[in-house]
Amino acid sequence: CDIVRKLPPHVFWPSPKVDSAIVRVVTNPQKRSEIRDLSSFNEFVRAIFIHRRKTLRNQLSHLHDQRIHAGSIDVAFTELGLSANCRAEEL
Predict the structure, then answer these.
(1) Which of 20, 59, 65, 80 is close enough to 7 for a disulfide, judged by CB 3.0 to 4.6 Å?
(2) Reduced to 3 states, what is the DSSP secondary structure of residue 43?
(3) What letter would DSSP give residue 14?
């Protein structure tokens, strides 16, 4: 990732209380080719980041109207070293 340009609040209306940035993300072709279903992956990433301030655990439990058992999420979080209250924006 590279920050292409930083934008001050006054360039937006209404002005936010934060600075913004244009970010360039270059994908790794090898890692991208390892994703079996790119469409589902993109949908998953969009779903968890659209409400990035909500807890990731809550977002995952409601993903695609398929309730994922909270215990399964907790086990995965523990294995990944994530807090039960982590948010997508923290990733």
Answers:
(1) 20
(2) helix
(3) S
Around Cβ 63, how many Cβ atoms within 10 Å?
13
pLDDT tens-digit profile of 14-63? 999 999 999 999 989 999 999 999 988 888 888 888 887 888 888 887 77
Q: How many residues does the chain have?
A: 91
- Token pair for residue 87? 């948010």
User: Residue 64: left (phi > 0), alpha (psi -120 to 50), or beta?
Assistant: left
Q: Give the pair of three-digit tokens for residue 35.
A: 């994703």
pLDDT of amino acid 3: 95
The residue with tokens 């209250």 is 85
CB 58 within 8 Å of CB 47: no
pTM: 0.58
Q: Are 4 and 24 in contact (CB under 8 A)?
A: yes
